[in-house]
Amino acid sequence: MASSYWGVNHGKLVFLIITFCFIIDSTSAEWLNHGGDRTNRRSAVGEVLISPRTINRLKLRWKFLAGFDITATPAVANGVVYFPSWNGNLYAVNALTGQLIWQQNLTRLTGLPVTRTTVNVTVSRSTPVVADDLLLVGIYGPAVVIAVRRLTGTLVWSTLLDPRPLALITQSGTVFFGGYYVGVSSLEELLPATQCCTFRGSLVKLNVRTGAIQWQTYTLPDNGGRLGGYSGAAIWGSSPAIDIARGFVYVGTGNLYLAPPEVLRCQAAQNNRTTPPTNPDQCFGEDVHFNSILAFDVDSGEIAWATQLGGYDVFYFTCLVPNNPDCPPGPNLDADFGEAPMLLTIFSNGRLRDIVVAVQKSGFAWALDRNTGHIVWVKKAGPGSLEGGGVWGAATDGKRVYTNIVNGNRVPFTLAPSNQTTTAGGWVALDANTGQILWTTADPSNDTAHGPVTIVNGLLFAGSVAPNGPLYAMDASTGKILWTFNTGATIYGGVSVSYGCVYVGHGYSISLAKFHPTWTSGTSLFAFCIDV
């Protein structure tokens, strides 16, 4: 029983209430993966204490010192918070007191090679996924998923999903009916032209108890492991959404790293045309699922439908050098889906309609029919860039869709529906039925907005990468900021919510952060709780 974890102050009424809630409801108020649950909505549906009326009573309860950056959304279950740090450790912490229950060093625990591309330890950057008595963790290179005991952190199994040296796991998985679903990504697009690229993105289903691969479906045609074929279309953001009624699992994919020579020649010819082509994607063949939203059959892994959104996009890091002859013919947008879609039901054309919604790094929000993949509505929520646009995770309460807009290029960003502009990032709310923009709020710190958002009882939580690490709570109906707390270091990750408490880590000073000298290193996980 979860109450065995509560260490101190049993006399406080709130502790008794929360313990009682654990007994009567083990999942509705917990946060089990990056998206919160299998719908990937980042919505605290079981939360009753936190609301716009009580936000002024949200106070810092504890601060756990991990010693280095924390960017993953924490998981919360049965009174325990689970999270990794970029120091290579995995932690389990008492949710009410912040007391350490256990920690495991991933290098020593797994014996895996260190993640040399970013740090000299084995790390995870994704949310641990709760699966009964197990915790499932993706490794940020090599592309391995491990299972540990939730009570002790001891290793149960370890499974390699892709043997390529730069393959890795950045997506948090989703558990459903004994299966664990997770995408595979790569850092191959960092390679020079002579070595890039052979990686193909894939979605994998593992047996939760044994780690056995039950199916693995690729997003691109087979290239035989040789240069010159299709590569890229990684699956790297947020967590897969699972539709029980249809038996579908939904994800989004990234850009192509490279394409076959005949495709590049075709695109170069299109670029030289004086009239637009009749079909903007006529250069591509079948089964090329980059910058796409896909629905997979949960049992077989077969692709039920795939919708490619945004057109031709071949990009790897050599394209960052202007006029580099090694860069493939453009456009080189890097317009990934850095998040999986969310499940929701809207009212459209006089009837209820089940849809998925995801926001792209291009800044476009897309709503697709869950049965067919047909576009229901599309709206540009804000400017796109190599970093976003929307990335890592939108949220929905069913009435509105909420997203961050990074605005990585610092271009004028109209705060629709007003005519005001900013060059910072911000947050946008759209009508879930139509895609109409309802409000836009700029980051008051005048910085970019990289982290995922979280919705809870009429409040939208989001952090800023500003050096002082502000965390904001906004009125979900207006975008007005109602509450702020400066954590002291860049916030790149997202908030989880459980039983009247908000959990978030801070600090981001490695990997992508190397391109942002103002981002700051952090040390801690914070718990903010309603003071009752």
From TrEMBL:
Residues of the signal peptide: 1-29
Domain of life from the UniProt record: Eukaryota
Keywords, in A-Z order: Oxidoreductase, Signal
Ranges of residues in domain Pyrrolo-quinoline quinone repeat: 61-307, 426-504
Gene Ontology MF terms: oxidoreductase activity
Cofactor dependence: pyrroloquinoline quinone
Family: Belongs to the bacterial PQQ dehydrogenase family.
Protein's name according to its UniProt entry: Uncharacterized protein LOC104217192
Gene from which the chain derives: LOC104217192
